[in-house]
Design brief:
Chain A: This is Xanthine dehydrogenase. The structure holds 3 protein chains of 3 kinds. Chain A is of the alpha+beta class. In chain A, about 25% of the residues lie in helices and about 25% in strands. The chains are: A alpha+beta, B mainly alpha, C alpha+beta.
Amino acid sequence: MSSTTDISRRGFLKIAGLGGTALYLGVFPSATGAEATIVNAGQAAYQSIELNAWVYIDTAGKVTFVDHRAEMGQGSYHSVSQILAEELEVDLNDVNIIFGQGDKKYGSQVTGGSSTIRMNYKNFLKLTATAREMLIAAAAAQWGVAAAECYAEHGHVIHKKSGKKAHYGELVVAASKLTPPKDVKLKKRSEYRLIGKPLKRLDTPLKTNGTAIFGLDKRVPGMVFAAVERNPRLRGKVKSFDASAALKVPGVQKVFKIKMLVFKTYREGVAVVANSTYAAFQGKKALKVEWDDSGFEHINTADIYARQLENVKTKEGLFLKKQGDPDAALAKSAQKLDLIYQTPYQSHSPIEPLNCVAHYQGDKVEVWGPIQAPDWIQDALSEEMGLKRENVIVNMTFLGGGFGRKAFMDYPHEAAVISKEINAPVQVVWTREDEMTQGPYRPGITYRCEASINNGDIDALKFRMSGQNNDHWRDPKNKQQANRSTSEGFLQPYYDSIKNISFAEVIFETPIPSMWWRSVYASTNGFAYESFLDEVAHAAGKDPMDLRRQYLTDERSQKLLDKMEEISGWKNRKKNEGFGVAITECFASTVGQIVKVSRKAGGKVKIDKVWAVMDCGWYVNPDIVQAQVEGAIVMGLGAATMHEITFTDGLVDQKNYHSYQMPRIYDIPPIEVHIMENAEDAGGVGEPGLPSFAPALTNAIFDLTGTRIRKLPFKMDEV
Amino acid sequence: MKNTHTKITSGVIVMALLLVSLVAFSFKKDGANVSDYMAVPDKKKDSIASVKAFQKVYSVLMSPRCMNCHPKGDVPLQGEDSHLHQMMPQRGKDGKGLYAMKCTNCHQPENTPGLHMPPGHKDWHLPPADMKMVFEGKTAHELAKQLVDPKQNGGKDLKKLVEHADDGLVKTGWNPGEGLKKPPLTHAEFKKSWIEWIEKGAYAPAP
Amino acid sequence: MIKLTINGKEHTLDADPEMPLLWAIRDLAGLTGTKFGCGVAQCGACMVHLDGDAVRSCVTKIKRAVGKQVITIEGLSDNNNHPVQQAWAEIDVPQCGYCHSGQIMAAAVLLRDNPNPTDADIDIAMAGNICRCGTYPRIRKAIHTAAELQQKSLK
């Protein structure tokens, strides 16, 4: 494979040069993933022909694929390509891959909700199959044979009888004049030569020798560096600053006040521009800034949880879902459970700190960086800076992790503002301390879970949560509605088998910026809901797995349970041997996990093994699916047992990895991942492996020790 | 409460006497620049004063700045609460760490500025695996005995032991990284007590 | 002016001797494979070899590197073919990939000092490198693979 890692689409087109007629299969998938409309736009474009928004072929036959979504570890760079190559009949090793700039033609580019594959794969298959059929038709016409006698293979069209062969490059111009066929035949899964195979990731070689270009590695001519001292409280202002010491730092060029967009509010800070990252950091340290922190609450962690607890104890909240009448059932219940669970605030802490390169040039601005949502950056910067949307040019690099944080617009906006001020391209680099102390964070939440049990059966489930709603940052109108993610993580089939269920949110707000974090609310809901079901099972005198069997009655769930039991030896376990189970669903995939714990010599609890079963329906690359579940479990382990963000007087207590400790290699138990094979539609892969880990672990600890953990994080050493 | 100042185990006395005479012998031999450490004639031996001095020495040696690099296991300790060092760096044979986790991969020749940054010294290391010189968990009695035992103190005779008060890495305890506390005595006070303890007979407090 | 030898090539840099080696390598020598992760010697993303030791370049000042050999990820092998790099590709270790320059530099030191590491040795050697994507199970597997590859290449 010869791969281009840092050529923007713009650069690519420039290389391709102007001239020639082009085939353009326009496709405008909606954000919901509705089926694409395929038209031959017939535009004169470039010698390198845009077969569709994702595929270019030049007249020499060179194929270029576009990954229009962020590559942040989850595998879009490879997986998008593995799908595109399938029906197009090209070899992955012959393909160049580039990242798509922000452009409406791709539909949504927001790389979140584990949506890249599940929202696009049908379009990709149809588009590439259509392009292939047009190339075959062009060849057949040239050769004067029936298209049905021809087939495509390895980037060529071949006539079966005569053995005539033409590479795609020879055919693209002729193909562009054809009308795209309707209803092309797509392969069955059993016919795939690429999809479903554990192919080696195309980005791996770039990531083993330092050649992959991440945001921090982006360089443009004339670029300077900047660091920003931001008010550590989001809503605070800059009262005054003294730049005299900073300006004496060798290499520091300019110091000035800035403000950057954070959803609908602004963060204020002081920017230090210098000739190296080091000089900018030194200048930042030398700054003296006086903050104005008046007019908003400086909150403490203890107050957050006290208020949330008060909320769920005294208020019904806004109902997101309600079926039957849980209150009536609870009122006359023979056996009731009423329990509180709490989860912490968490930092994303992607290993690549936030950074962005921006170049403001009067009527346009170009940015390069680790960006999860180029389209949102276009929206925000055009609106905020008074530019035409198409004049906000957004280039994605590889992302050194994202987990939701890099879908924010604050850091690109900040870079653009600084570039405008100095009239030069600039790279703004956040320190780890900046990233960890500024947020936004996954919100910490308090849950009240109630159940009515009659004769060992679940009669009613009533769930209430109180925690910050991320949607409130985007639009104040959302404050009139229950958090749409209140039930995220909870399995759909329960609604069919349990008569009375309700989910409600009691609104809770703080000045702390909050935001989605890998698996979003499922990451915290899952702990409460699946711990609670385990407690219900014990109260009802049932095996926790049998309880799931009783209420997850659909065939798909039953098969998942079969698999979980089979691989973990669940049925052969001894009483209180230390097995725990949890199952959660989010982004259209379900993941069941079993954790086995035991006591070390000395009595402390350790994790012996984690088994995970992923049901994501249609999938591309089993090795990437497994890797994502492994990684999600490791991230879940950290969030459950190692780190949390806490606040004192409105400031974050954790500054860097010494106080926000990550799992390290010696913390990791053996993890075994299985993928369900079925004919279901594609579900998400990057996030759904996370939520079920924490409850499976704490349920296992209860099984072994009788100690019930209802608040995260906890320390394994202290169980 | 036991009177720890007067109960002295006979074994230690014998050991200490032996060592003092060895020191005296070695001084005769090289005799250079020893005014600070001049061996004290037997008649000035004073078990009470020696033990009293050692109690001060002990308060320093058991402070995090000294004890953290004299752990009972093979992982150094860290911080004022002497928790196991994050990342579990291992002692290694020579006390300098292992593989990609050598002490000096993070600990520079000098302190790195900033809170929670690695403190530094050019020879940053733990005692080697064959001479662990454990402080952690030792009573004053155990530590005193250990310190004067050449088999446990790195082969130091009393002269070398006296000199050790001015060892570069020992003195690093009084140049801690930002935000870290110094030992409870100044280095001068420590050195005075250290020498006094040795000169007055290197007696160990009662067990 | 400070002279540094990076990947066998001499660089003359106009730099403050107190500048961390990390920024000299990235911003002045223009080698961006070495990463900034935490700046406080916690994560290992910035590891380079300094006369064979896997130092963290974010806290190693350039004055310490004068007269020594600095090897970065770009200089570990000629063709992405150090046994550790080959094993990383074989096992498909990286996800986002950002920490892996450091992970690979750490693993290379382990395999040099201990050609046949156990799981316990791997835990010791790799303890200083954080992977937020959680690729640890594959790092472990790949180091065992790299050990095999290294032994084969020696035969």
